[in-house]
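User: Hey, my collaborator sent me this sequence without any context and asked if I could get a structure. I don't really work with proteins. Can you help?
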Amino acid sequence: MDVGCGVRLAASCGRGGLVSQDTAASPMFTDVRDDYSRNLVESTQAFPSGSLFYDATPGRNFYPYNGATKLAAAIAFVKAAGLSSQAATACLPLTVSDALSIPTAWRGYVAVALQRGFLSLDGNAFNPSRSITRLELATSLNTLVAQ
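Assistant: No problem. I've predicted the 3D structure and written it out in structure-token form, which is a compact way to encode the shape of the chain:
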């Protein structure tokens, strides 16, 4: 079964032991119906400290075959690591050239993701809208699990 990057990110969080397996009584998203994908996706969205994917609303589409952006990955990794409280006070380095393109509410999450080595800059830019690569995902998960 070929799954999209969003489902791969959700699956990686589940298989890495970062989220407990949890499936709702009825489908949480209109476009995630099979049991395998539902288990992966709904487990990440039922995370005790809040849903890992900030841009997915229950009752609507999850878009499982779309790529996961660096911003979505940064937020998911920080939440999965239990570092949301640190994100509330973290500041992006002044050298991040595209800091203003990161929504204010999520800048602390990006800062923590960079500090912890979950993701890295592309030169001096974070590029929040760029999809993460499979190599970045693998590297990030190794860093996350090692903490």
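In plain terms: Residues 5-146 form one domain. You can pass these tokens on to your collaborator as they are.
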